[in-house]
Amino acid sequence: MSPPLQGAVLALTLVALGGCATKGDLRRVEEQVLLSRGENQRADSARAAQLAEIIEFQRAIMDSVSAASRGLTEVQRQVSVLRGDLSSELINVQQQLVQVQALTGQSQQRLTELQTQLDARSEQVSAVAVPGDTAAPPPSGAPSAEQIYQTSVQQLRRGSPGTARLGLRELLRLYPDNALVPDALYFLGETFAAESPDSAAVYYGRVAESYPKSQRAAGALYKLGLVAERRKDMEQARGYYQRVVRDHSASNEAALARDRLKSIGR
Fold first, then answer.
1. 148 near 165, Cβ under 8 Å?
2. pTM above threshold 0.70
3. Between 138 and 157, whose confidence is greater?
């Protein structure tokens, strides 16, 4: 029982025991009882409202926890799927790597076989050559000088100077008197131009000295001038350029040689 109600009951009891209660006293007691009931009702309503707020707050928390749990489950599922995808991708890459390694090994083996065959062919050619006979006929079934030349030049233009070098040397071995010899010597020089300019100069020099009337002579002299410039030997470079202008004035290289002479000074 609340304090106001207890007070009202106590007052009513005292009046009843005193035997002298009036109507006014009873009315006051009734008013106190009603007032106490009203306060109790308001207090109960406030507590009910607070309890409702607490329940609503707990429900909101539970909803948030449930949503977070569902989100975490979805993330875990996506991670699991991603792991599976990555695992499959890794397996595919590993399989492709194995295939590439196998193909690389096969290609290397094929190149080794071709090199072995070429070496054996060269030995056979050397074996049938007569000492002192520089014009021994090529073996039966050998490709023509034109075929070897075209194939070698194609290899050079494709970026395979080593392969081109082998073919051009084979041409010189099998067809030493062929009209394509100056061209073969010139392009042999070209196969060395990037990696060994001095070796390239040897072949350019053979063209310029042994075949001065060939269509490759002007180019060979011009390339000799460039090699000399790279060695910082301007005097020698100037001499080669002057020979191009003097002996091959109608060639394309003559115009280039004149430009180089202007650059380095006459």
1. no
2. no
3. 157
